[in-house]
Specification:
The complex is a heterodimer of chains A (about 350) and B (about 400).
Chain A: H1 6-41, H2 47-74, H3 91-103, H4 112-141, H5 148-160, H6 163-173, H7 180-187, H8 199-227, H9 231-239, H10 244-272, H11 276-281, H12 292-302, H13 306-331, H14 335-338
Chain B: H1 2-23, E1 26-32, H2 36-52, E2 56-62, H3 66-78, E3 85-89, H4 93-98, H5 116-120, E4 123-124, E5 127-128, E6 131-136, E7 139-144, H6 155-165, E8 171-174, H7 184-189, H8 207-221, H9 232-240, E9 244-250, H10 254-261, E10 265-268, E11 283-291, H11 297-310, H12 313-323, E12 326-327, H13 330-333, H14 336-339, H15 342-351, E13 355-356, H16 362-378, H17 384-402
Helix pairs in contact in B: 8-17, 16-17
Classes of the chains: A mainly alpha (about 350), B alpha/beta (about 400).
């Protein structure tokens, strides 16, 4: 590893310096233009808010809206290795891409619906454990006890460390000979498991890792929700003779619903789209461990099927969008926001 | 506040001045697939060249492995900002030529000074697409003379000797069980090939492939002479730590093993397959410079000069001394340092029974199809027959998708 020498510093500065300066000057120009257009020409009373929003709006347009628009365009092309620069763009090509997604293997052998089923299974398993694990821990933490702050800090630790670091550490521990999981299994008389090469156990390894990573987020959200429930409800319930379970079912869960609904939606979308865990745990690229997004990544960057992958990405977006709308409608989860 | 804004503006202007100053140099970006000792050699070459040519600045970027280099180069080319030069393997020529992201080098260099077999490995569509740096890049049997005095000549001997050596956490033989590059030598030994005579029709579901898969399965589950799970790093580490008597690895690792084992390192051919009487045929090619499409003007001149520097006799001999790789320059191949070096003799002895690695785009599909099925056989989750069948189905689907 190189030391921080003056050459390294000047080299790094020279690489970023001009870009930083251009961004700074660009932002200044934008502010001046917005000021003159809205402040002097239109004499709008919202000049200041527009000036404050302008850089962020431009950033979002360049980094979110433009890539999405390009993605939609790419979905209607046949861009691949053989058509890298001279690809064709047409409605027919787009429809062909969408047809291929459902008719042919997405990668080498696996087709779309088995892949979708595996992704749903992955999402459901993880979400069940995230929510239940988070709920249990939140309830345990929502009491007066010594060292509560320390427990909370330790329990948040999986969420605090960079996800890639955690996943790679877990991957090391799933090593057949030298990982601590197999070492412990052998110590208690069980056979070691081929976590990295057996399709079933590789999927289980990814689930274990993601559950460990995801519980703290739910725990924090639910804890916040629990702390906002007025204590009087529980007092009144106790006076009326309600058991702990009845209080949990009739007070805690309904009061948590406005908080759980967005958390579950977020959790579902994040888990459905989780790339790091299934990709990194699947060290040997087993197609049986791929979910939709990892298959999408491989189709795009390992098999260079750019047009096809863009169409694939839009299909995933549509699935999640439909899920979100349906979930909100069925659960009435955000009714409380409007009432 | 005023003071803060002033300091900020001054720093910005200084940073951009530094950037402008460095912009007066010719800046080249070189991506390399090398690691460890070969990477150190890359760094020293770049440093030496820049010292002698202060008007040129070369940024050396190491890519973690050849697959990452391939994917990143295609992505960077798509984004319009590829590196100027690549230091990579020959089979990248296939996808890069198909995507039209590299330049042919016929008119840019005098290729007659290089070894023919090295040039053939980057010939596609009648043109050459890389300048060879080293000749070979092939697998061979490397062994620790302290742990094994007589290497097995054939596979029966390998199993017999292997059973005696594999005990107490030590293994007779290690190799990268996760990459099909380590499978193809055995396939060659069983007289199999991945393509038919036309060079593009895949032939993976064959009796030869089934026999090969059965052989590696037996190596693991019957003879038990290899670790239960072993990737490149595990094999490399076990060999370096003296826990494996033999390793099947490539010429790129010779420098590292010489550093650890010194005179105790031996090189031999991968043992002959008894069933066919054939020597295993590892793929041979080399390591190459490739130029990004559109490289021109001062950058092209600087790239040509740098490549000429690396391909010079002096640097080729230096590579032989440091890395024990066979040179691609004809003149350097005749040097006594090459002809009288026992390690290089062993390496070239293996190379002569090797087979040129196919560079066509369809080879990508072969690699991707063989990999998971090879793993399935080595984990006993699929029979060799089912694995071979699945390989063929998979490669046909992949090639169809390429169209």
């Amino acid at each position: 590893m190189s030391l921080l020498t003056p050459e390294v510093i000047t080299g790094s500065l020279s690489q970023v310096g001009s870009m930083v300066l251009y961004v700074f000057l660009g932002a200044l120009v934008v502010e001046v233009v917005v000021y003159f257009v809205f402040g002097k020409i239109f004499k709008s009373k919202y000049t200041l808010p527009y000036m404050l929003l302008a850089p962020a709006a431009i950033g979002l347009t360049l980094l979110v809206i433009y890539p999405m628009a390009y993605e939609v365009r790419l979905a209607f092309t046949n861009m691949s290795l053989r058509h890298f620069r001279n690809y064709s763009l047409s409605l027919a090509q787009g429809l062909q891409n969408f047809k291929l997604i459902f008719a042919e293997p997405v990668l080498k052998q696996v087709k779309f619906f088995p892949l979708l089923s595996r992704t749903i299974l992955w999402t459901v398993i993880n979400l069940i454990f995230h929510v239940s694990g988070g709920l249990v821990l939140a309830i345990l933490l929502n009491r007066r006890m010594r060292g509560r702050g320390i427990y909370r800090t330790l329990l948040v630790f999986p969420w605090a460390i960079p996800q890639i670091v955690a996943v790679l550490a877990w991957r090391g521990e799933f090593h057949f000979e030298y990982g601590f999981i197999n070492v412990m299994l052998q110590r208690i008389g069980l056979q070691p498991i081929q976590w990295m090469v057996d399709p079933f156990w590789n999927f289980v390894a990814a689930c274990i890792t993601n559950i460990w990573l995801g519980i703290p987020f739910m725990m924090i959200i639910i804890l916040g929700g629990l702390q906002s429930i007025p204590i009087e409800f529980y007092d009144a319930a106790e006076i009326d003779g309600a058991s702990r379970w009845q209080q949990f079912r009739s007070i805690t869960l309904p009061m948590l619903r406005p908080i759980l609904t967005p958390a579950v939606i977020l959790g579902t979308i994040w888990t459905f789209n989780n790339f790091n865990v299934p990709y990194m745990i699947n060290k040997y690229e087993l197609e049986t461990s791929d979910i939709l997004v990892t298959a999408l990544f491989r189709a795009a960057f390992e098999y260079n099927r750019y047009g096809f992958s863009a169409a694939f990405a839009l299909v995933i977006l549509l699935i999640l969008f439909v899920f979100t709308l349906t979930y909100i409608r069925v659960t009435g989860g955000i009714k409380g926001v409007y009432e | 506040m005023k003071k803060f804004v002033t300091i900020l503006l001054v720093s910005m202007i200084l940073m951009s001045l530094v950037s402008i100053a460095s912009a007066s140099k010719v800046n080249l970006v070189l991506w390399t697939k090398e690691g460890e000792e070969p990477l150190d050699w890359n760094k020293s070459l770049v440093a030496e060249y820049m010292k002698a040519n202060p008007e040129v600045s070369i940024e050396l970027v190491k890519k973690i492995d050849v697959e990452v280099l391939r994917e990143d180069f295609l992505t960077a080319s798509l984004a319009g900002s590829p590196p100027d030069l690549l230091w990579t393997v020959n089979d990248h020529a296939g996808p890069f030529v198909a995507a039209d992201v590299i330049e042919p080098v016929d008119n840019l260099f005098d290729l007659s000074i290089f070894v023919d077999s090295a040039l053939e490995a980057v010939k596609l569509e009648g043109r050459y697409w890389g300048i060879p740096i080293s000749n070979g890049n092939h697998l061979m049997l490397l062994y620790n003379k302290k742990l094994i005095s007589k290497v097995p000549e054939d596979t029966d001997e390998l199993f017999a000797i292997g059973k005696k050596l594999t005990q107490g956490g030590n293994y007779a033989l290690v190799w990268n069980q996760t990459e099909p590059f380590w499978l193809v030598p055995w396939l060659g030994g069983f007289k199999g090939k991945v393509f038919a005579e036309d060079g593009v029709t895949p032939t993976l579901n064959t009796p030869e492939m089934i026999a090969t898969l059965k052989f590696i399965h037996d190596m693991k589950f019957d003879a038990k002479i290899i670790p239960p799970e072993c990737d490149y790093d595990a094999a490399d580490t076990l060999f370096k730590e003296g826990k494996a008597a033999m390793i099947i690895n490539g010429d790129w690792s010779l420098g590292g093993y010489m550093g650890v084992l010194g005179e105790d390192l031996g090189v031999a051919r991968i043992p002959k397959v008894v069933a066919t009487g054939e020597w295993p045929k590892p793929y041979t090619s080399g390591v190459y410079f490739m130029l990004a499409k559109g490289l021109s003007g001062d950058k092209l001149k600087a790239a040509q000069d740098f490549i000429g520097f690396v391909a010079s006799r002096e640097k080729q001999i230096e590579m032989v001394k440091l890395l024990n790789r066979l040179p691609a320059l004809k003149e350097a191949l005749k040097d006594p340092l090459v002809t009288e070096n026992p390690i290089l003799k062993g390496s070239s002895d293996q190379m002569v029974v090797g087979t040129p690695m196919p560079t066509v785009l369809e080879m990508r599909c072969n690699w991707d199809s063989m990999k998971p099925e090879m793993l399935a056989v080595l984990t006993d989750t699929k029979s060799p027959e089912d694995a071979a069948k699945a390989m063929q189905t998979s490669v046909e689907a992949c090639i169809k998708a390429l169209k």
